[in-house]
Amino acid sequence: RSNGRPIARPEPTLARYSELNDGGTPVGPRDRTTSERLIAELHVIPWSHTSKPQPILQVPLTNCTQEASALNHLPHLLVVFLLTAFTSRHAVAQLSAFPGAVGQGAASAGGRGGDVYRVTTLDDYGRTDKPVAGSLRHGIESATGPRTIVFDIAGGIELARPLIITHDNLTIAGQTSPGGVTVWGYNTSVNRAHDVVIRYLRFRTGDFNAQQVNADGTPSSPPAGKGNMDLRGDSADCLSVVASDRVILDHVSTSWGMDETLSVTTSRNVTVQHSMIANSLNDSFHNKGPHGYGSLVRGELTAADRAANQGGYTFYGNLWAHHTHRNPSVGGQQNLQAGQSEDERRSTDVNLINNVVYDWGAQPTHRNNEGLVRANLIGNYYVAGPESQSGRIFNENNKAETQLYQDANWVDGDRDNKHDGALITKPLQRISGFSGTDKLLGSDAAQPFGFLSSVAEHVIAGDAAYDRVVSQVGASLWRDAIDTKIIHELQTRNGQIIDTQESLRTPTGLLAGLDDLVVKTRPANFDQDGDGMPDDFERMHNLNPLDPTDRNGLNLSDQGYTNLEVYLASATRAVPEPNATTLSLPGVISLLFTHQLRRRN
Questions:
Q1: How far apart are CA 381 and CA 353, in angstroms?
Q2: Dihedral through CA 556, CA 560, CA 565, CA 571, nearest 10?
Q3: In this structure, is residue 402 part of a structural domain?
Q4: Domain limits at 376?
Q5: For residue range 76-89, what is the model confidence (pLDDT) as tens digits?
Q6: Cis peptide preceding 328, ω within 30 of 0
Q7: How many distinct structural domains can be found in the chain?
Q8: How many CB atoms lie within 10 A of CB 526?
Q9: Is 328 within a domain?
């Protein structure tokens, strides 16, 4: 890498790679040497049926001078921020949703401590149908308390209608599938729920059931469209979070939305990390016409929230690819409520950190209409593609105040099919539209907004972020043909914005990524007590494979993660972090690291 090392370790490489359908070479992880290990870097012991009993955590220790060396490779302003943001020697780390969770949504408890539901069928059911036991929808709708949903099956779930998640304290652990799960045909939404965790799933809405709608929003007469003709284009995101709190989406893959592809609106404390947001459908069934958009991001923050740096969003380590606009688009509250003054209009705080944006059309990252926005735009990599109309990375719209801190961003804007981007040293040449009360920050006198603290220790250089996205983004435990194609297009600077998923069918009619999904099921003796942990895993770690209650024990973690959560982490080749410690760097202010040392007996 040409610049920078991570301040905290990147995740282990997660992807398994398959051949490209077009006969190209496999897309595999980038070969890379291991840099100096940071304080108490954790190593994973991948679990399998043939593994021998071993300790779950291995914690090699180094000295703090290596951490100081790592700081030297970060942009100066981030070092200043880190040294001033974490000064407490006795801070107590909050238990995150899972090891590696960052940002405001990392506070999500998910289904911790609750029951377990096993998905055993790919079937779905409509509103008037009898619920199908063992289905994903039934697992969500039948929850009466905290719940973790695991998968004993792999393949595609063709939705019979939109999948709306309204239950609180829910974890959907796609990493437990024997080969990955794709949810397709309708949109999925987390709506008015709190403490939701969704990991390692693929969401492909498509226009399979699109309803033809007139420009004024009324349905066409006679009815027209495709399939069931009941999915409006203006409500057909792939995945959205609406009016919810403490939600984290991790390693999800989304594509073929007719509105946006993955959006977060009117919510609080949401993280979207390591996720692929690709190939929205542009000239499809949206009543406004061409609408190939990536992500709409709108918050719900009050002045008190802003003062406390609480309630915002983080987008970390994601890939946006092949959208005309909204990569992402950020705005505040659009319409005032009765009796609400302009001064009370709610705003958005957002971290946009270590993402890759590829082949935007007219707009890269940009503002969206009303409401104050404060954003940290740090360590991202923008790659112009065949459809990109400019080399700018952020556009302001002059309709409302924007306060943007930008630093350490990269751009490859020449569209020459070579990976030869560079660090942005003259931001005014890449960022446009700032005037009036807008603030473009990033000088030696400026610091990131305080809400960066939820992710600051995980910021890496933009070129390193690009490498990590290539190897790990999306539902990368089992990259399907669609995700593999998108990554190949990013690497070769090819591909295009599409109008329908049907344009991706082969001459023989195969829609790769759906028609070629392989159905796999777990054997009956995989998890006899149904607690979500394989019997072999339980035996290996001295748990009882016939006692379902031990899933909520704390035998395997000193930090408060349940035994089930430790297994879920091991299924992604990550492990719970050990207990907090505070280290002092020579000659500087104390710095709290999340690489925390395990208690020793």
A1: 10
A2: -60
A3: yes
A4: 104-521
A5: 444 444 444 433 32
A6: yes
A7: 1
A8: 16
A9: yes
